[in-house]
Design brief:
Layout lengths: L14 H10 L4 E7 L5 E7 H10 L1 E4 L25 E6 L5 E2 L6 E9 L10 H14 L3 E13 L15 H6 L1 H11 L5 E6 L5 E6 L2 E2 H21 L3 E3 L13 E8 L18 H21 L21 E3 L6 E4 L7 E4 L8 H18 L23 H10 L1 H7 L1 H20 L3 H7 L4
Parallel strand pairs: 1-6, 13-14
Antiparallel strand pairs: 1-2, 3-4, 4-6, 5-6, 7-9, 7-10, 7-11, 7-12, 8-9, 12-15, 14-15
């Protein structure tokens, strides 16, 4: 458990100790949660009196949650709605995730694992998918560690910009909204150690960096961090968006994911001080796997129609399918300042990713590269936006086609998840194609 006065405050005992821990912290309710395919937090608030029963028996939810689009419309054709009579799955609590909240008084929060009523795992549950990939890493002798850098816009209650102009790293701009930032940092500290925060490149845009942790724990904390920031902003009359490209003419929101591996002895395996670029063959092959599978994983890394609007040259959103050392225009950037800090940074993702699924995809692709000794190609230098190199897929339909056609993706994620994720995302893609944007109407309506 965390030391007195330090955050996050996490439960570290067994089932026989949890009720005393909750009472000792004056907890009145416990939020039991999971996420859908869009990374939206779903759950129920359980009273303290009912929690012991829930801890042993779980909580029932309509499995239809995994057939919802971004508007919570029930998408036909999945395995979770009409085909099973809109039946339930069960959330089994994972007490290792139990923590106190700061932005909601008298409340604790816990994540869970989704199972069917017979106790079998729900294969499409994003937490279960990441756990399987992390297990694959363990079978290969590795433990994966990750850390995300989340960018977001601080907005007014109408989801409009609060500021104007570009002043990256400006301490004066930060001071303009210092009260809001401090409130957000306080709320976010319930989930992980925050290393730093700063005013970013867009007007009212911020970046917050979380200290690295084991990848499954990091995905849980990253998901909760993002959801908590949105809730905490509402408490102070503001809004937050992690949308990939929320405004024309302003930079988008990224989520850079740093990842490293250790062996059974806890040694970091990406560093090789005497090798070219000071990285090991294991690191090169990991990067090779990520680049090799990028096209078929684009539907995971870029999950929404808006994701693709961020992929434009000269906007600090990498569009190249190459790697480099400390080069912000590459899809994968190696940072090698010390052996212990040598890591691979996936720079392509937007702030709208599903944290568990993106980390699972990143790790699975890299592990496949290690297993197959995949060559990442020569290290790239300079501004890749201006060079003739392979590019990321920039069309949602093409990304879904590549995802559906990949046997490797089905092997890595499971056919059940791939089938149902595709059904939901193709439904959203169809709705997007049928909708006339206001900008399109304004452009053509007078002259055509």
């Amino acid at each position: 458990m965390s030391a007195e006065g330090e955050w996050p405050v996490l439960f570290s005992g067994g089932e026989d100790e949890v009720m005393a821990w909750l009472r000792g912290h004056n907890v009145e309710r416990i939020r039991a949660e999971y996420s859908d395919f869009n990374g939206i937090a779903r759950g129920k608030a359980v009273s303290l009196a009912q929690f012991e029963h829930v801890m042993h028996h779980g909580l029932a939810f309509a499995a239809t949650i995994f057939s919802l689009d971004i508007f919570a419309n029930v998408v036909p054709g999945t395995d979770y709605a009409e085909s099973i009579g809109y039946g339930d799955f069960i959330l089994k609590l994972d007490l290792s995730t139990l923590r106190l909240l700061r932005h909601e008084g008298g409340t604790a929060q816990v994540l869970g694992t989704l199972v069917w009523p017979d106790g079998s795992l729900v294969d499409s549950c994003p937490r279960n998918i990441l756990a399987r990939v992390a297990g694959r890493a363990a079978d290969m002798g590795f433990t994966a560690y990750a850390a995300p850098e989340f960018e977001f816009y601080l907005l007014n209650e109408d989801n409009e910009l609060l500021d104007e102009g570009v002043q990256c790293y400006s301490m004066q701009k930060r001071t303009m909204f210092l009260a809001e930032e401090l409130a957000l940092l306080e709320a976010a500290s319930a989930h992980a150690q925050l290393e730093n925060s700063h005013y970013e490149y867009g007007p009212g845009q911020y970046e917050m960096t979380m200290r690295y942790q084991e990848i499954c724990r990091m995905a849980d904390d990253g998901h909760l961090f993002r959801a908590t920031l949105k809730e905490a902003a509402m408490n102070i009359g503001r809004r937050i968006s992690f949308m990939a490209k929320p405004f024309d003419g302003a930079t988008g929101n990224s989520c850079h994911i740093h990842l490293s591996l250790t062996d059974a002895d806890g040694k970091y395996v990406f560093a090789a001080p005497d090798a070219p670029q000071h990285i090991s063959d294991t690191c090169r092959h990991f990067i090779g796997g990520v680049l090799a599978h990028m096209a078929e994983l684009t539907a995971i890394f870029f999950p929404n129609s808006n994701s693709y609007r961020r992929l434009v040259p000269a906007n600090f959103a990498p569009i190249s399918l190459v790697w480099g050392v400390d080069n912000r225009t590459t899809a994968v950037r190696v940072l090698n300042e010390t052996p212990e800090a040598t890591r691979s940074e996936l720079r392509v993702c937007g702030g709208d990713i599903h944290v568990h699924l993106a980390m699972a995809a990143y790790l699975a692709a890299g592990l496949d590269g290690i297993a197959k000794a995949t060559d990442p190609g020569a290290v790239s230098t300079g501004d890749l936006d201006e060079q003739d190199v392979a590019r990321l897929p920039d069309d949602w339909g093409d990304a879904l086609d590549a995802f559906d056609a990949s046997d490797w993706v089905k092997e890595a994620f499971g056919e059940e998840f791939c089938r149902n994720y595709s059904v939901v995302k193709r439904y959203e893609y169809g709705a997007f194609r049928r909708t006339v944007p206001e900008t399109e109407r304004k452009t053509y309506i007078e002259f055509l």
